[in-house]
Amino acid sequence: MAFETVSAAAPPAPLARAEAAPATAPLVDPFGRAITYLRVSVTDRCDLRCVYCMSEHMTFLPKADILSLEELDRLCTAFVARGTRKLRITGGEPLVRRGIMTLFRSLSRHIDTGALEELTVTTNGSQLARYAGELADCGVRRINVSLDTLDPVKFREITRWGDIDQVKAGIAAAQRAGIRVKINAVALKGVNEDELGDLLAWAHGDGMDLTIIEVMPLGDIGENRLDQYLPLSMVRAKLAERFTLTETDYRTGGPARYVRVAETGGRLGFITPLTHNFCESCNRVRLTCTGTLFMCLGQEDAADLRAALRAAPDDALLHAALDEAIGRKPKGHDFVIDRRTKRPAVARHMSVTGG
Ligand code: SAM
Ligand code: SF4
Predict the structure, then answer these.
(1) pLDDT tens-digit map of 199-257
(2) DSSP per residue over 90-131, as a string?
């Protein structure tokens, strides 16, 4: 299997730092939404094959198309100069990209200066035991770990290749390193729907928030989405039979809506892109590992920042490309999963755009 790893012992080599970006205006889209949150997919590769995310036999991008870590740093730095306050590193599985700690180390300078409020990561947890300490060192204070079940056999079925003990060890290592962990679970009809209450009790019992995500129609995965789709209204109704759920106005700058769970004292989030439209407060854009910027997770329109990045050593063209791209950010998406819609609403996989 061809995914990238880095030796645990090797200290990250310093990146050639991006030139100081010009002090330019904050990025605000035509609907008045300030763009303050960038999600960056640093690789489309992964060491797992979750059934809702990838097909078993994926064709990954040629390595030559992927931005170098220096280029990713330069792009992120340009966004930070334009008002990005929160940076989430994702993928594919971000922690399987070779040398990824070099990027975290380099980006942490924006935390040190206060330009960036939060540097964070979404991970499947498989490599976390190895990297938790370094992530904490780089100023990472909170992470999301994706885990859909506590049942080792089911975990293997969902991820096709995963080992739940590795993930649990990773979570424990992160917690020991002082990183707050939030668990993300995708609700899957007939797979984990009866287990979400137990997952909630486990996560909250261990001081972790839980967010349940509705499955989204992204990418051809070789299965019918209707077989997986479980509306979160049903999940919530079922959880309410066991737990007392109280609405809160807590927000993390993302699309999740949170409730407080009286029995555990913890927080439970719901991300329902299909049944609840959250576009009006969207402050985010997504960058792929090839330098393509998606202004909306649910639309095809994109901007090629790699060309602007590589055209000149200074960032003038890049900033012009950012202005042009944000000027095209659409008002909202139009996902749909129904019996007439056989194709995915958006052809690219979540692992390309970054979850
Ligand atoms: N590999 C990392 C992980 O699994 O956390 C980061 C990338 S993954 C694409 C980010 C998140 O997207 C995960 O929580 C995953 O469960 C979720 N995801 C992937 N495909 C999805 C889909 N079709 N619908 C909803 N969530 C999805
Ligand atoms: Fe990999 Fe994350 Fe997609 Fe699962 S959800 S296949 S761990 S990228």
Answers:
(1) 999 999 999 999 999 987 656 666 555 578 898 999 999 999 999 999 998 876 667 88
(2) ESS-GGGSTTHHHHHHHHHHHHHHTS-SEEEEEE-STTHHHH
Pocket of ligand 1 (CB under 6 A): 46, 52-53, 90-91, 93, 122-124, 146, 184, 186, 213, 215-216, 218, 350-351, 355
Q: Is 50 in the pocket of ligand 2 (CB under 6 A)?
A: yes
For the chain, the domains span 37-182+277-353
Closest-lying ligand 1 atom to the alpha carbon of residue 46: 1
Question: One-letter amino acid identity for 193?
Answer: E
Task: Kindly state which CATH superfamily the domain 37-182+277-353 is placed in.
Answer: Aldolase class I (3.20.20.70)
Cα–Cα distance for residue pair 192/195, rounded to 1 Å: 5
**Hunting for tokens 């407060």 — which residue is that?**
281
pTM, 2 dp = 0.89
Q: Whose CA is nearest to atom 5 of ligand 1?
A: 123
Quick one: how many helices (H) and strands (E) in the chain?
Answer: 11, 12
Dihedral sign computed on CA atoms, order 246, 248, 253, 255:
positive
353 lines ligand 2 (CB under 6 A): no
Average pLDDT, the chain: 87
Strand-pair category, 37-41 with 284-287: parallel
